[in-house]
Amino acid sequence: LDFGGQYNQLIARRVRECNVYCEVKPNTMTVDEIRAFDPIGIIFTGGPQSVYAEGSPQVDPEIFRLGIPILGICYGCQLMAQYLGGEVTAAGKDTAREYGKTQTWFDTDCRLFRGLPEQSITWMSHGDYMAKVPDSFRLVAHSDACPTVGICDEARGFYGVQFHPEVNHTEYGQAMLRNFLYEVCGATGDWTMGDFMRKSIEDIRAKVGDGKVLLALSGGVDSSVAAALLAEAVGNQLTCIFVDHGLLRKNEGDEVEAAFQNWDINFVRVNAEERFLTRLKDVSDPETKRKIIGEEFIRVFEEEGKKIGSVDYLAQGTIYPDVIESGTNVAAVIKSHHNVGGLPDFVDFKEIIEPLRL
């Protein structure tokens, strides 16, 4: 569950590297929606706010009665502690506030740390700390500055850490995540990217049927992978539109066109340099530029779709970091990606398909 931390997509990546499928969902996901999703475990991500602050992202408290293991990371740890009877407060400058690489000690009887060294480096980034842990929890990790670095209630499968196991700076972070997935949640580890590809192709075919798809193709890795996936799924129902908007490197448009000449796909190049540069004239704010570019892309795709005739679906190579950069309901905008935050309010297609978004 996403509480606005900028490492969130990295958590998903680390889980998938353990051959376990996961999805990042908003913190507002209801208990009924969670039941329908039927996860074997839940991870609460970090976040930039304080759990005790007015308007900070919260969670449905019924989630703690579902009988599903939960791992709270940083903000997620503090949130769990607060809901279950603990106390979270601001750390003083010279007390429990921590940032950066930190020597940390562990109780390796805890399943989260089983098989790992009793002492190692973790990556901290917190200005709040748990002044009191919930009664049913025991302390399982500490540092010189903070006595409440790790907590657990193993009977309920609840674990919380103040550090970030998902980043490489935490020496045994991946092993800790693996312990949570396998030792606590009982994961089988049978998911691979091949499974993702097969499911994506099945989902695309089920959604599109005999309809036509227009793919926004930049020639980069993301949209090229999306092109290959869509071509496998719907074949000649796909048309790839490459828009040369005048903002590419010298000869890059020609290189993209040459790269796709040998692909068995419908490829269309649109030379739209003049219209893009005209719209961007005298605009200096980067965020405004991104939104203009996003809108102009859509208008070009709509025009090209009409030439093809009755195109129902616009496809994009959006990946999850694009979504993170553009901000979620609880995260700050880093920069709007033209595939996400840069899209106009009205898009004249039946639906947008983003097979790589998760």
UniProtKB/TrEMBL annotation:
Any keyword Cytoplasm? no
Q: Which UniProt keywords apply?
A: ATP-binding, Glutamine amidotransferase, GMP biosynthesis, Ligase, Nucleotide-binding, Purine biosynthesis, Transferase
- Tell me which InterPro entries the record gives: Class_I_gatase-like, GATASE, GMP_synth_GATase, GMPS_ATP_PPase_dom, NAD/GMP_synthase, Rossmann-like_a/b/a_fold
Question: Do you know which CDD domains this protein is assigned to?
Answer: GATase1_GMP_Synthase
* GO cellular component labels: cytosol
Keyword Ligase assigned: yes
Single GO MF descriptor: ATP binding
List residues of the GMPS ATP-PPase domain: 191-358
Q: Which Gene3D superfamilies match?
A: 3.40.50.880, HUPs
Protein's UniProt name: Bifunctional GMP synthase/glutamine amidotransferase protein
Source species, please? human gut metagenome
